[in-house]
Design a protein that fits this description.
By secondary structure, the protein is an alpha/beta fold. The chain is 52% helix and 17% strand. It is elongated.
Length: 435
């Protein structure tokens, strides 16, 4: 409005001076000034129309996009509700059935297998949501290490070849020599797991191919299938969060629909890009690349031989305030023949360790009353820098692992963990009695 008034005032002032200097006849001057006023109104009216039309188009597009976003979010939440409630229904239902004392051994084993399968399914959904949250908040941390890439691909082949549908074959295609690279092995495996899992879900016959090839300073990975494919109008959206919720096949096949959005975020963090080539009804080819960093070929120090027998004649201190978590650890560790002590908060953990020379390892929960796991670890490190302290926590959205290591923890295991995972981490860090 201010610009309009300033331009209008300038037009009247300067145009009047020019017209008056050129025309002396009052009648002609009056007519020219009238036409001059109408000309200004006409020009400014056209400009206002063009400006307002563009602004209205932007507003309508924004409104349409907001409605689409809300629609996708609603569909996503409905899908998530289904994906969470379905395994929960299986867990609750079959746990209730296990109360029946008249069940046969075979029935009990079958019910427990279903409960475990449902639990893994539920955990997968939760992990997907947490992974996406980490990506969107910029909290993804890469932990690079040296890995044998061909070995990783072989392990994936063995894992997925056993679960292929009837009529679907799995082929591994490696267009490179044996490679040892430096990368985040967990993230790389997660990428390939997501793509292979998707390919398996959407392919009912034909084959799935996966592999990699070295290209100059990059590694190109691919997962190709002969599945349902992707409609052309959906290809540009397939890696966006919530978008998969509108794909009709999702209703039939299931899944939280976050895998590709997670893949895009992880690949971006690793310095690469991901894309897809697809023909609807004939299959999809997914590709992603990451920088190639060759591993150093320095001869590693000879590792000390690890004892396959877990701690014996020693004491394991479990710092855990939740009864259910402590009882679970007791159940899976009691067959190892080791003495187990419990502290219900960080203060008790410090005091118990100071008073007992038999304690040779500590499982330290992070969130505890009185004194948390971080502070308890720091206090123990003031007088003992050697005892293995394994942080165990359900916090996974921040830098908990880094904070735990900085506080003095020897290692970190996220909840929930399985029997073999806790066995492995104890084996890894077991040591003799305190000096």
């Amino acid at each position: 409005m201010i610009v309009y008034l300033l331009v209008g005032g300038a037009w009247i002032l300067f145009s009047d001076r020019i017209v008056q200097s050129l025309i002396s006849d009052i009648n002609v001057l009056t007519a020219v000034q009238t036409y001059k006023g109408w000309f200004y109104v006409l020009i400014t009216g056209i400009l206002f129309y063009v400006y307002l039309k563009k602004d209205l188009i932007k507003i309508r597009k924004a409104q349409k996009k907001a409605k689409e976003s809300e629609s996708l979010k609603s569909a996503f939440l409905q899908n998530m509700s289904h994906e969470i409630r379905t395994p929960m229904n299986g867990i609750i239902g079959f746990v209730e059935l296990l109360r029946n004392e008249n069940l046969s051994k075979e029935q009990r084993e079958r019910y427990m297998d279903i409960i475990l399968k449902c639990s893994d399914q539920l955990l997968g959904v939760v992990n997907d949501v947490l992974d996406l949250s980490l990506i969107e908040t910029g909290n993804v941390k890469l932990e690079k290490e040296s890995i044998h890439l061909n070995k990783l691909m072989d392990e994936l082949y063995l894992s997925y070849s056993e679960s292929m549908k009837e009529g679907v074959s799995l082929e591994q295609i490696t267009k490179s020599e044996e490679l040892e690279i430096v990368t985040d092995a967990v993230k790389l495996k997660q990428l390939l797991d997501n793509l292979l899992s998707n390919a398996g879900k959407f392919t009912s016959k034909g084959k799935i191919e996966f592999g990699f090839e070295k290209q100059d300073n990059a590694l190109l990975f691919f997962v190709k299938d002969t599945g349902v494919g992707i409609k052309p109008e959906q290809i540009d959206k397939i890696f966006n969060r919530f978008e998969r919720a509108e794909i009709e096949t999702t209703k039939l096949i299931g899944g939280a629909g976050l895998g590709l959005a997670i893949c895009k975020g992880i690949v971006g963090e690793m310095g690469g890009k991901i894309w897809v080539e697809s023909e609807f009804g004939r299959g999809s080819d997914f590709y992603f690349n990451i920088p190639f960093v060759a591993a150093s070929h320095q001869k590693p120090e000879e590792e000390k031989e690890k004892n396959d027998v877990l701690i014996q004649d020693d004491c394991l201190l479990i710092a855990e305030d939740e009864d259910s978590n402590y009882l679970y650890l007791m159940e899976i560790l009691q067959d190892l023949g080791i003495e187990i002590w419990r502290a219900k908060n960080g203060k008790e953990a410090v005091e118990m360790y100071q008073e007992n020379d038999k304690i040779s390892m500590i499982l330290m929960d992070i969130k505890m009353p009185v004194v948390d796991g971080y502070e308890a670890t720091r206090r123990i490190r003031e007088f003992d820098s050697q005892v293995p302290i394994i942080a165990q926590t359900a916090f996974v959205l921040g830098d908990e692992k880094i904070q735990a290591l900085e506080a003095g923890c020897t290692d970190y295991i996220p909840k929930p963990f399985k029997r073999e995972e806790i066995y492995n981490i104890i084996r890894k860090h077991q040591r003799n009695h305190k000096d």
